[in-house]
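Morning F.,

Quick status update on the modeling queue. The single chain you submitted on Monday has been processed. Sequence for confirmation:
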Amino acid sequence: MSEGYVDNRFASLYYKELGQGIPLIMLHGNGESHEIFSRLAGLMSRYYRVILMDSRGHGASHLKEEARAQELTTSGMAEDVVEVLHVPQAVILGFSDGANVALETASQYPDKVLAVVAVSGNALPRGMNAFFYVQVRAKYALWHVMEKIPLTGPMKERAVAGRQLNGLMAHWPRLTKTQLSRIQAPVLILTGRHDLIRPRHSLWMGEQIMDAKVVFVKGADHFTLLKKEKAYASHIVAWLREKGL
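Structure tokens below.
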């Protein structure tokens, strides 16, 4: 196992590698870190060279001062993925916001991506169910106001993080039909009827991508991947093998 940091003008990005074989980068969700994949990464590293990373503004990755006033975007995070990869091509497995970044990366950098496994991701903010979408926008507005109040210490940090994390969900991704159609890699979209992502949106995403398979996992909600790692790992590895990876 190896670990380290990659610096760019916005952040110092933490990554960790384990296993051997075809590179497989794993991207966590909003407000999380690579540690959510502790069990899944171990399973996948039996077959692949797993690269775990913390997205900018998350986990052990540190935002630089000039980036703190800015918004987090999936397009910016896609740039980070390419910088951390330091390999010609990779499979990308993303969960929730990580799935959004995975799709963004495949659209922006098609020559870098061998395949995408997008678990509980969306292409547009309104792909989330209406109740959750309204909550996210309300939280973004609240933290945006809180950030303008003269705060110091932990409360100031919390306000910045609240504004950025909720803004990421409220305003991103912005993957249109055209952008999704640019994805050349095969894509496996895993979701559930009880997910925070609307089923119709998941189907619409699949329709825009040239080689996409949409699977509704029986009984799955938004977080089932993190509860049934063995079942998901088996399904994902089988699909990747079908694609020759």
